């Protein structure tokens, strides 16, 4: 991955995975308060809507990766 230096893979993996888990710890209590205020149905609707931008970014990155791999395959086939 471009996020990690091969010399420090284990350390960087540990740091990045612990950073990723912080959202759960930080947003846990406020989400309970929000669920009480909105009710469960509205809370899940809001949660779903808040997840949509992240899913769109994921789709864009996935398509970008597919294009990059396709270009690599075309370039490597052209060099033969």
Please explain how this structure is put together.
The protein has two domains: 1-38; 39-80. Helix content is 86%, strand content 0%. It has helices spanning 9-38, 40-78. The protein is built from two helices and no strands. Helix 1 (9-38) runs antiparallel to helix 2. The protein starts with 8 loop residues before the first helix and ends with a helix. It has 80 residues and is mostly helical.
Give the tags.
single chain, 80 residues, mainly alpha, 2 domains, 2 helices, 86% helix, 0% strand, flat
**Sheet having the most strands:** none
Beta-strand content: under 5%
First-last Cα distance: 27 Å
Order of H and E elements: HH
Query: What is the number of beta strands?
Result: 0
Q: Structural class, from secondary structure content? A: mainly alpha
Domain unit count? 2
Q: Roughly how much helix do the residues carry, as a percent range? A: over 70%
Shape: flat
Radius of gyration: 20 Å
Q: Poorly predicted ranges (pLDDT <50, ≥5 residues)?
A: none
Number of helical elements: 2
**Average pLDDT taken over every residue:** 85
